Amino acid sequence: MNETMPSAPEMQPQQDNTQPSQPVVQHNSLQPDTSSNAHQPQPQPQPSDPRPTQHSGPGRDWLAIARRRFSLIGATIVAMMLIWLVTAETGGAILRSVFGDDAPMWATVLVSSGTIYLIAMPLSMLIATRVPVLRTAQYPMRAGEFFRIFIMVVAVGYVGNIIGTVLSLVLSRGQSSNRIIDILAGGDWWVNVLFLVVLAPIFEEWMFRQQLISRLRRYGEKTAILYSALAFALFHYNLYQFFYAFGMGLLLGYVYTRTSRLRYPILMHMLFNLNGSVVGPLIIRQVDPHFFDGSMSNEELLRLVQTADARLTGLGYYSLYVMVLLALTIAGIVLLIVKRKSWEFYTAPEELPAGRVARTAYGNIGTISYLLLTIALTGVALLM
After folding, report:
1. Tens digit of pLDDT for each residue in 102-140?
2. What pTM does this model have?
3. What is the DSSP letter of 29?
4. Around Cβ 316, how many Cβ atoms within 10 Å?
5. Could you give the C-alpha distances from 231 to 74, 250, 262, 268, 298, in angstroms and in order?
6. What's the first-to-final CA gap in the chain, in angstroms?
7. CA angle, corner 302, sides to 297 and 303, nearest 5?
8. What is the CA 235 to chain-centroid distance, rounded?
9. How buried is 266 (Cβ within 10 angstroms: 0-12 exposed, 13-18 middle, 19+ buried)?
10. Which residues contact 245 (CB under 8 A, 6 or more apart)?
């Protein structure tokens, strides 16, 4: 088997995208194909497959099944959000009754984040299992390719963060605040590591990359990746995070689609969150806080630069950190431009016709419900 990301078609091309001629196996889990010349994935005939044959008419039944499956996925993530909101609110009420307004940050984060990962996501999968997973082979990813794409993730993350921050402040007339910053500022380092660096990447990649893409990729790789990225971005219901989460979702979804190995997007997600939730705040704490809030006078700033004390060392580390991030962001943007024509996408076994993608994937009750719910939550969070 190749030792790099596959260059051979991942999905066997079809001559007619409107009425695919080969049925697809319906599996409930990814199974690696260990044969030496296996391509990814390997669709196999199944007599009971509900898709239309060449003599079954215009394929409306097949499209209806596709729309119903997208609706089930939409219902899955709606259920996830509702279970999360209910359990988090219930847990918050219990905390207030025990601690009043002085609940420890670890308990607050456990209630707000632990409920989504440990309760809402697993329970919501009871709906998603009604949509079969497409069987795929797994492919390794070389370290060089991994870090090239991770640099792109960094670039997309920080550019998206700037866009989200500016748009949030403009729409709220400067009144909104980023709740993630509040959590980082008020939490202990081990709380940030546990929830933001460990649990969040594992559960979010499992849900939005593995579960969603594996169940939707039969209808088109680009369609599945875009759907997953949009669902992931809206899941945060925070305009500050929407744009960088969407961009990261596209890149991490591509990595998962090409390799079918969850370890790669999880590790990229972990590294990105490690920088934003642990490394960055740690370096910022080494600098005099007056440097950031604008209260430092020109004389104090000049004295800070000229004085060789611990604050100067912290300012030096901060300056170096900013320059490294800027260099990585520029490098990532260049890579995105240079590599824009080298992304590999292959025709899926049940590729949706170009003119039916939006209606099938998004014009269904489950997905529409998710869009309305998360957009409403985002609006409320922006105004709070």
Report:
1. 888 888 888 988 899 999 999 999 999 999 999 888 999
2. 0.81
3. S
4. 13
5. 9, 11, 18, 19, 46
6. 53
7. 95
8. 9
9. buried
10. 160, 232, 233, 235, 236
